[in-house]
Amino acid sequence: MLRDISSASKSILFEVYIFRSDRVGQRFLDAFAGAAGRGVDVRARLDAFGSWGTFPGSAHDALRRAGVQLKWYGRWSWRHPFRYGRRDHRKLLVVDGEVAYLGGFNVGEESSRTSIGRTRWRDTHLRFTGRLASRAEQLFHDFEERRECGKEEWVDGSLLLPNYGVGCRYRWHCVLRQHLGEATKRIWITTPYFVPDAATQRGLRNAALRGVDVRLLVPGKSDVSVVQWAARLSYESLLGAGVKVFEFGGRVLHAKTIVIDDDWASVGTSNLDYRSLFINDELNLVTRSSRLNHELADVFLDDLEHAMRVVQKPRGKISLLRFAQGLIGWAARKWL
Predict the structure, then answer these.
(1) 91 given a catalytic annotation
(2) Phi and psi of 174, rounded to 5°?
(3) Closest CA to 249 of 227, 218, 272, 216
(4) What is the DSSP letter of 98?
(5) Which alpha helices (DSSP H) does 67-116 contain, by range?
(6) How far is CA 111 from the centre of its chain?
(7) Beta carbons within 8 Å of 79's beta carbon, 6+ residues apart
(8) What is the rounded average pLDDT of the residues 302-321?
(9) Residue of 4, 47, 91, 173 marked catalytic
(10) pLDDT tens figures, 24-64
(11) 256 an active-site residue?
């Protein structure tokens, strides 16, 4: 990302949920300022909630002085208090309309092998070029101007799917449910936060019951404990239907990928939770590319080497504490 930013000649469009002004963040700040200094149109959009307390005023002022157009999304307003709960959860970088990045990475040392070492967060991000990157540039501006999503535009077998605006609030949810229902071979999902709605859980169970290989990879260690409480509450019904659940060990899992059969896959910013499905602004790439499908499947199988399979407990063996924790997490799912 930093190499592409350093070679930008026309424009840099960047949005992220969490931007930390640590050593990694400072490198991005310097790169943005340097690009703006050589005449590149640099625009950055940060989520006010996600970057609260991690992006100080000094960093804000430095970018502004350098000529970067910095905007905050979702600041608190007494006039519209309920809008504060809706977050820009997208992580997108577009350089010159020719190169784009999309996936789970925020900006911070927790994802840096140089800073943290082998315990860095496990995440997945894509780099893509050409017409699909041009489409990403268009969607950045569409979001900024709050345009409706418009017509789906497939580019070389792939689709960038946003979910903002009244006309497309639940598009990702509908697309996902459709493909869960059509799967015939496998559904392999990696998600850091698993608190889906009842319909999505039913889709996973039904797929497993009709013989589809349904595997769910979730964190064994989470940065949001309450979400993990809610996730574990839903395991029993999934395990009973034949869904295989694995908890990733050793480090925090933050990747968001889905592999269905041999010719459909998704990488993006959406978790498989209530907020990503219905509330937050997200952006996902879905593809019919069998090559990317197989590459993500290989990564999934490699991750399973570092995961432990969850075994269904006998009926009545779930502790009262775990059950109570699950209820708390489920009740709070819309606000996490």
Answers:
(1) yes
(2) -65, -45
(3) 218
(4) T
(5) 113-116
(6) 14
(7) none
(8) 75
(9) 91
(10) 999 999 999 999 999 999 999 999 999 988 988 899 899 99
(11) yes
